[in-house]
């Protein structure tokens, strides 16, 4: 899991970029910064379908407030109120100012109507809400990868230098199937005018390092990561995300695909064990022949 120091460095970069944004930017604008490779998250495998409830305990959410404080890492969970495993819903929440904040996701985060055009046909948004009218939200960090067999990674579709281009739903890292970038859906009218700046960091790479899949990803080195799977995604608002009154919470909805970090198949361990056993037998037989 990433350290608070890594999170802070990423947010400083986001803040610097936001300072350069035009105040006339459209409400729905999303600016994606260059990836920050950071520390590589080495993982054994991927499960491409991640539901809101299925990610429980597998990543954290840190919310940074406009008064300079933050929530600290809050673990993603489920079975809170109406957000249940039956509804495939997960959330993280906490206190802020004179209210509270909540981030929710239901169903499969990466489900799209057209796999060849994922970023324009996404179906299941994440929704951030706040009821605080005294302290706003400045930025949010979603931090995955608990270990090399557990956690969450954030799967991108766009490749190349910003603004990049869609890969057309190509797989990239083996097992990831296809990604979906951070994409704006809708927001409360009272908070219109915000521009969201997004950055992916801490590249994920499979330990077995099979080739990156798809013509737009195949040139990347699988040992250091195919550039589509990331352990952390951060997003920051150009203006304070804040409610007018505590009785009228505001919301911001976006899409982002996630994959689950997976353990290797059991037969991998079996084959490895058989290989070691065969090697041991071979050495014993060879030693016996040499001594006879």
Tell me the total number of β-strands. Answer: 17
The total tally of domains equals: 1
Distance between the termini: 54 Å
Name the shape in a single word: globular
Average of per-residue pLDDT values: 87
Order of helices and strands: HEEEEEEEEEEEEEEEEEH
Cα gyration radius (Å): 21 Å
DSSP helix fraction: 10-25%
How much of the polypeptide forms β-strand, as a percent range? 25-35%
Largest sheet: 10 strands, mixed
In the predicted model, the low-confidence regions spanning at least 5 consecutive residues are 1-27, 267-279
Query: Count of helices?
Result: 2
Describe this structure in words.
The chain is α+β, with helices and mostly antiparallel strands. It has one domain. Helix content is 14%, strand content 32%. The chain is built from two helices and 17 strands. The chain has helices spanning 4-18, 266-291, and strands at 30-32, 41-43, 45-47, 60-65, 74-75, 89-96, 99-106, 126-130, 137-143, 152-155, 158-159, 165-166, 183-187, 196-206, 229-241, 250-255, 258-262. Strands 1, 2, 3, 4, 5, 9, 10, 14, 15 and 17 form a ten-stranded mixed beta sheet that branches. Strands 6-7-8-16-13 form a five-stranded antiparallel beta sheet, with no helix packed on it. A two-stranded antiparallel ribbon has the order 11-12. A hairpin with a 5-residue loop joins strand 11 (158-159) and strand 12. The longest helix has 26 residues, at 266-291. The chain is globular. Mean pLDDT is 87; it is low at 1-27 and 267-279.
